[in-house]
Structures are given as structure tokens and as C-alpha cells.
Specification:
Helices cover 32% and strands 28% of the residues. The chain has 69 residues and is an alpha+beta fold. A hairpin with a 4-residue loop joins strand 2 (30-36) and strand 3 (41-46). The radius of gyration is 11 Å and the shape is globular.
Length: 69
């Protein structure tokens, strides 16, 4: 299992948290998503077919691009 931690600067409230967690868990291969509003972070666990590139693309599509782009 692979793990990622991203800073998502656009996270500002519980609705943002819920939206990110909901959309990511729809992706095949995502096993866990925990978003923390206070530090604007997302801890993501995944296996194939999910990839770093696909996860970052989805985050950008839903309006929460990662801090590093």
C-alpha cells in the first residue's frame, strides 16, 4: 500500500473536507482518505490502479490542487 500526504491550500471548512474525502474514495484503488481542515492536509492511502498522477489530477479537477501543483 502506498501513502501520500498533501497540503491542499483550498481546504477551508468541513464541506471541503467532506467533498475531498467523498470524491477520492470514489476512485478505484483508494483505500483511505483523511482530510484535516486545521492544517489543510490530506492523508491518502492507495493501491493500483490509483496512481499519484491520477490522484493529483482528480484533486485539481474538484478544485483542491496540491500545494506543489
Amino acid at each position: 500500500m502506498n501513502k501520500l500526504n498533501y497540503i491542499l491550500p483550498n481546504i477551508s471548512c468541513a464541506h471541503c473536507k467532506m467533498n475531498v474525502e467523498r470524491e477520492l474514495t470514489k476512485m478505484q484503488g483508494i483505500t483511505s482518505v483523511v482530510v484535516t481542515v486545521d492544517n489543510k492536509s490530506a492523508d491518502i492511502s492507495y493501491v493500483e490502479p490509483a496512481t499519484v498522477e491520477l490522484i493529483k489530477e482528480l484533486l485539481t479537477e474538484i478544485g483542491y490542487p496540491t500545494h506543489d501543483g
